[in-house]
Amino acid sequence: MNIAIVGTGYVGLVSGTCFAEMGVDVTCVDVNEQKIDSLKKGIIPIFEPGLEDMVLRNMKAKRLHFTTDLGSVLDKLEILFIAVGTPADEDGSADLSYVLQVAREVGRKMNNYLLVVTKSTVPVGTSRKVREAVEQELKNRGLDIDFDVASNPEFLKEGDAIKDFMSPDRVVVGVESEHARELMTRLYRPFLLNNFRVIFMDIPSAEMTKYAANSMLATRISFMNDIANLCEQVGADVNMVRKGIGSDARIGSKFLYPGIGYGGSCFPKDVKALLHTAAENGCRMRVLEAVEEVNYRQKEVLFRKLEKAFPEGLNGKTIAMWGLSFKPNTDDMREATSLVLINLLLEAGCNLRVYDPVAIGEAKRILKEKDNLYYASDIYDAVLNADALLLVTEWKEFRLPSWQVVKKTMRGNLILDGRNIYDKQELLSHGFRYQGIGI
């Protein structure tokens, strides 16, 4: 089976590589010549555990190809996936310009039947716009070529994307014809050997499912952060509360971990896009509005704790920060809490010493070289003469540091644990002052 995936970002590259791993002939297409040239050399533009080896293996097997010329592969394809970015506009809506640009190019260059599938996260009604764009270009050419559209949203977690793709909870596919259903069934048949579900539905429902899923997860996160903040006020331990409610089968334990706000390329953007879709249709989503507000405030929690810990002011204080990416196992810093904290701390006159095992390069790209911002070489370099340490991202290598070395290296003794990964009593025994979230 021959397919192409337009867009070699996170979703496109992971999806294309995993399809190739299952024996599909895949061509990944991108307009960025430099990125395609790098991929042809086996240079991977993103960090995802296991991805580089899989890309190289499938390139060697000649199942995975890269090109900037969509027209050169269209005639041999049965399915084309659109996996380009849909960044949020200023009003919160999803920018569909890249999606529709691909659709128009397909209409200008296709000569045979094609199933066009949106894998990008797109609002309800996008597939209809894709169909209209293709039809208009075919009309301009004076051609009447049969084609179908479908929706196949992704549910990949950065850091676990390959596992999620190869062994997913479910695959959601929105179709409007039996032929499209047959093609998507054939494509995903190798995965059925793992006994997971392919859920077919209408296209608008498939498009909505993606936003509803991410918004529900974001809601659970913000709810637990609200509970955590209340726990601090009343003397409760949010970890005990989490275990208590998570044992209820109707609730479950996933995404009930309090922290310092969600970030990344999905949750913030998708919540905003769903709110915008609701507003366009005269529907106000009050719960989701609160979710977004809580998350915005939660990203400032560690800074507020610092202010209380140093009533004399933060100007001139040296603050160490462990973790920059929005979550572990990725270098992605989009909407990362670290960026909010860094800006607040620099504005307050702090000297920052930051470290991340993977995202330092991305941080330098985003933040550039700033006065009073030092990129440390390891965790101990980061805490050198620090008045306080902020744990921002729960990378595994941060879990069991030598607290004796940390204590000797720091000037102060305050540790603010933004992910509740440390044992409070252990740190108190080493002479630290410790604060977590909701404990």
Question: Can you describe this structure?
Answer:
By secondary structure, the chain is an alpha/beta fold. It folds into three domains: 2-201, Rossmann fold (3-Layer(aba) Sandwich), CATH 3.40.50.720; 211-297, N-(1-d-carboxylethyl)-l-norvaline Dehydrogenase, domain 2; 299-435, Rossmann fold, CATH 3.40.50.720. The protein has 18 helices and 14 strands. The chain has helices at 10-21, 33-40, 51-60, 71-74, 97-109, 126-140, 161-166, 178-192, 203-234, 238-246, 267-280, 286-298, 301-309, 337-347, 360-367, 379-382, 403-409, 424-429, and strands at residues 2-6, 25-29, 64-67, 79-82, 114-118, 147-151, 170-174, 197-201, 318-322, 351-355, 373-375, 388-391, 414-417, 433-435. Strand 1, helix 1 and strand 2 (25-29) form a beta-alpha-beta unit. The longest helix has 32 residues, at 203-234. The model has no long low-confidence stretch (mean pLDDT 95).
Number of domains: 3
CATH class of the largest domain: Alpha Beta
Cα(first) to Cα(last) distance is 54 Å
Q: Could you tell me the CATH topology label of the largest domain.
A: Rossmann fold
Strand line-up in the sheet with most strands: 3-2-1-4-5-6
What would you give as the CATH superfamily of the largest domain?
Answer: NAD(P)-binding Rossmann-like Domain
Return the structural class: alpha/beta
Rounded mean pLDDT score = 95
User: Radius of gyration in whole Å, from Cα?
Assistant: 24 Å
Please indicate the percent range of residues in DSSP E strands (runs of 2 or more): 5-15%
